[in-house]
């Protein structure tokens, strides 16, 4: 519960500050349609399933039960550190890529990492965090003593993002520029807690996701769209973080095609390694 609350709070705090126009870095203007995020068990479960197999970058299978695509951010660390400061550090690492944006207005109005980030330094993790139409997030963390794919990194935090279009979709707007909450979806108003975000905060789920006696449920997702970036810079307790690059992109395959890819790519990874899920 502490992990879920920390991850959700960190995302909403960053989104609220940027939407207010108070973000001083890179001249990001206020956002008229930034949604508040709620916590989603299905998105957490999808991340949890992937973390139990093994990890090398991003999983190719992130569809919800509604066949909706989701975005993803991944943070890696070299030391076991299951603490609130590390949870916060993961989101801070993703958001800190704001420093690498070279054209904030261009990026906001026409998402294309190749045109609006510095050299090869990624900003897709940052844009995934602030994508205005995202409505849900679900995260997990896992300890892998022996990681055959990323030998230096043993602890990872994975967040999946759902709602809207899944985030990081090329040639689309990240958000509408304008006074905070001035262009909220018709069924939403300004949030009572995060006054620059649209929508209502729901209670954070306390139960474990999708036990056998609790199948179904969940939410989030997003039609079409491309996934978010992977990894974040920085580490915990002297450990090094991990960074990966992405350009988001549109999902161009049908659901059945993606599922076939999931089966062919994920099953060979199901090797016998010890993983300790920390949820």
From TrEMBL:
<feature type="compositionally biased region" description="Basic and acidic residues">
    <location>
        <begin position="205"/>
        <end position="215"/>
    </location>
</feature>
<dbReference type="GO" id="GO:0005576">
    <property type="term" value="C:extracellular region"/>
</dbReference>
<dbReference type="InterPro" id="IPR035940">
    <property type="entry name" value="CAP_sf"/>
</dbReference>
<feature type="domain" description="SCP">
    <location>
        <begin position="2"/>
        <end position="171"/>
    </location>
</feature>
<protein>
    <submittedName>
        <fullName>CAP domain containing protein</fullName>
    </submittedName>
</protein>
<keyword id="KW-0964">Secreted</keyword>
<dbReference type="InterPro" id="IPR014044">
    <property type="entry name" value="CAP_dom"/>
</dbReference>
<feature type="compositionally biased region" description="Polar residues">
    <location>
        <begin position="242"/>
        <end position="255"/>
    </location>
</feature>
<dbReference type="InterPro" id="IPR018244">
    <property type="entry name" value="Allrgn_V5/Tpx1_CS"/>
</dbReference>
<feature type="compositionally biased region" description="Gly residues">
    <location>
        <begin position="216"/>
        <end position="241"/>
    </location>
</feature>
<feature type="region of interest" description="Disordered">
    <location>
        <begin position="205"/>
        <end position="255"/>
    </location>
</feature>
<dbReference type="Pfam" id="PF00188">
    <property type="entry name" value="CAP"/>
</dbReference>
<dbReference type="InterPro" id="IPR001283">
    <property type="entry name" value="CRISP-related"/>
</dbReference>
């Amino acid at each position: 519960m502490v992990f879920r609350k920390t991850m959700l709070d960190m995302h909403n705090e960053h989104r609220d500050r940027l939407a207010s126009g108070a973000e001083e870095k890179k001249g990001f203007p206020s956002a008229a349609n930034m949604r508040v995020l709620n916590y989603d068990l299905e998105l957490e479960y999808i991340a949890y399933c992937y973390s139990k197999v093994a990890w090398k970058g991003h999983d190719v299978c992130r569809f919800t039960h509604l066949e909706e695509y989701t975005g993803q951010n991944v943070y890696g660390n070299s030391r076991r550190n299951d603490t609130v400061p590390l949870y916060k550090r993961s989101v801070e690492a993703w958001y800190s890529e704001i420093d690498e944006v070279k054209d904030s207005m261009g990026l906001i109005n026409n998402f294309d990492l190749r045109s609006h980030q510095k050299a090869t330094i990624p900003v897709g993790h940052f844009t995934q965090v602030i994508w205005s139409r995202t409505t849900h997030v679900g995260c997990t963390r896992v300890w892998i003593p022996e990681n055959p794919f990323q030998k230096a990194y043993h602890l990872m935090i994975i967040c999946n993002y759902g709602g809207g279009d899944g985030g990081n979709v090329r040639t689309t707007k990240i958000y509408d520029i304008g006074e905070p909450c001035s262009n909220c979806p018709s069924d939403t108003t300004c949030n009572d807690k995060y006054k620059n975000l649209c929508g209502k905060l729901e209670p954070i789920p306390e139960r474990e996701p999708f036990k056998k006696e609790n199948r179904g449920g969940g939410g989030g997702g997003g039609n079409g769209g491309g996934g978010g970036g992977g990894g974040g810079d920085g580490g915990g307790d002297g450990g090094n973080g991990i960074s990966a690059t992405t350009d988001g992109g549109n999902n161009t395959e049908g659901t059945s095609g993606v599922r076939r890819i999931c089966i062919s790519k994920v099953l060979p990874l199901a090797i016998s390694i010890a993983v300790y899920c920390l949820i």
